[in-house]
Amino acid sequence: MNIQISDIGHVIQLAIAPVFLLTGVATKLTVLTNRLARIIDRSRVLEDRLEIGADPHYTAELDILYGRAHLINTAITLSTACGLLVCMVIAMLFLGDTASLPLDKYIAACFVLAMFALIGSFVFLLREIFIASKNMRLAHNARRATVR
Q1: pLDDT tier at 64 (50, 70, 90 boundaries)?
Q2: Domain count, the chain
Q3: 3 in any annotated domain
Q4: What are the transmembrane regions (predicted)?
């Protein structure tokens, strides 16, 4: 097997777009883990307060937080799957070119699956954001109603 430098250069050019995608996915994972950390921190505070005494408001908020955490965990799982699939695309680009293997269909399939995983991750993130915003509005309106 004789690998030419020009061949490797061509494969690197092909791999640049997936590498940028991988960077975006990694950044998104950071956002998701930060959101999950905030949810966990708030739930710990509420759990500590519930140990002191039962409060239906805390219990209701905890239920919402658990649901939000589930959505974020699903988004993290899908983003991670997307990242793994993109890594496989990059590896198959190099492997296919250097070993002269016909991997084009596998590369396309992995890329499409990566896009579906990324789309799913965004859907779950958006659902979590909507729930967080809705509950923030409800809490604000409830506080305003008690002040009047």
Answers
A1: very high
A2: 1
A3: no
A4: 12-32, 71-94, 106-126
Measured distance CA(89)–CA(18) in Å, rounded: 8
Q: Whole-angstrom Cα distance, residue 49 to residue 55?
A: 8
The reply to whether 5 falls in a domain is: no
The residues near 127 (Cβ < 8 Å, ≥ 6 apart) are 71
Question: Does some domain include residue 7?
Answer: no
Distance CA 39, CA 121 (A): 18
pTM: 0.89
What average pLDDT does the segment 75-88 reach? 98
Q: How far is CA 63 from CA 26, 46, 56, 103, in A?
A: 29, 11, 11, 47
Would you say 36 and 44 are in contact if contact means Cβ atoms under 8 Å apart? no
Name residue, tokens 């430098």.
5
Show the domain range for 24: 17-147
Query: Is 102 domain-assigned?
Result: yes
